[in-house]
Amino acid sequence: MIEKMVSILASEFEVEESVITPEANIKETMHLDSLSLVDMVGMVQEEFGVTIPNADLPSIKTFADLYDYVYSRL
Amino acid sequence: MRDIQSLIPQRPPILMVEEYVFDDENSCRSSLTIAEDNLFLDESRHMASEGILEHIAQTAAAHIGYRRKLAGFAVNYGYIGDIKRCQINEPMPLAGEQLTTALHVVSQVENITMISAETSVNGRVVVSCRMKLAN
């Protein structure tokens, strides 16, 4: 699951896979603004069938947070 | 619903949705019969792809507006954030033909909504895309 997510995120947001480390900050690493954050949420919804409500977004800061969030809802 | 003007700010001659049908929170349909005086027709009476993208954007805005109404909020105005994965399949429709659009909400973060949409004419998809709207 993690490899698949890293691959998709790197492709979608045009960053090297090597920078997507568990402890890295998602917004800083992928240069996300409010307009592109919806792309990440959409990717998770489409690829993993997991919906991230607005209320949960502030708690997802690092890629490890994202992996844990998705994995716990699969 | 035909009272589309209560959901979006556009008015004739730039109004590009005739009928809007709410299916559920995340999907809707719309249609537009292309009038002979439509602003997006070229000299050969074909609809420009930009006109169909405007039709999709207005459909999305109507859906966002309708959802806001259902939730008890006022309808507000938005703008297109970006368009991705756009596929245009010629030939473009002619005046007199009807556009039908199926739209699905992919995701939403605060006031940004990402949708996917397909617009067809007589069962043939002429434009599909993803679009982000802020409102």
Notes on the protein architecture:
The complex is a heterodimer of chains A (74) and B (135). Chain A has 74 residues and is mainly alpha-helical. Chain A has one domain: ACP-like (Non-ribosomal Peptide Synthetase Peptidyl Carrier Protein, Chain A, Orthogonal Bundle), CATH 1.10.1200. Chain A contains four helices and no strands. Chain A is globular and about 25 Å long. Chain B is α+β, with helices and mostly antiparallel strands and 135 residues long. In chain B, strands 1-2-4-5-6-3 form a six-stranded antiparallel beta sheet, covered by helices on one side. At the A-B interface, helix 3 of A face strand 4 and strand 5 of B.
Please give a quick description of this structure.
With 74 residues, chain A is an all-alpha fold.
How would the blueprint of this fold be written?
The complex is a heterodimer of chains A (74) and B (135).
Chain A: H1 2-13, H2 26-30, H3 34-48, H4 63-71
Chain B: E1 19-24, E2 27-33, H1 49-70, E3 79-88, E4 98-109, E5 112-121, E6 124-134
Antiparallel strand pairs in B: 1-2, 2-4, 3-6, 4-5, 5-6
